[in-house]
Amino acid sequence: PAALVSGRDSFVVLAEGNPIGSRTTVLQRTADSVVFTETLAVEENASTRLTVVLDPSDLTLKRMEQTGTLGAQTSDMRLRVVGGRLTGSASIPTPNGVEQIAIDTALASGPWYIEFATHVIVRALPLSAGAAFSLPVYSVGDQTLKTLRVQVAGPDSVRVQYLSLTGELLY
Known about the structure:
It is built from 1 helix and 12 strands; from the N terminus they run βββββββββαβββ.
């Protein structure tokens, strides 16, 4: 976790070479938290804002808020970890209207991570060629703990429209 530094990334979302939206991610370290915020907007009718607050010692969830729109429907999710339990609620748009979900579950002992912050967790791992990690990840959708396996295949290069990047390839 100490390797994570505050920063900001912005991307343009393209469809057939045309810009249709944007994605911005911000990572902030404070004295008592690591805060990850992501904003995604696609055309005028779809957007979401996600804020995940993590414990800086082990990157486990403290709280999370997500709001969004899809056409005329809105979504909202608020989760909090208190006393070994994950509690909260979610309003999720479906073809049949908005579904309300109550979340109240006992958590597994030991560290576990929330699915919405896995890319932050992966950035904190000691990545090197051949390294492999298995992480317990909580899935809000089906309210279960799953295993995320991350393995570094080795160095690779990626060319992205006038920009060449070199780094470790994950799969």
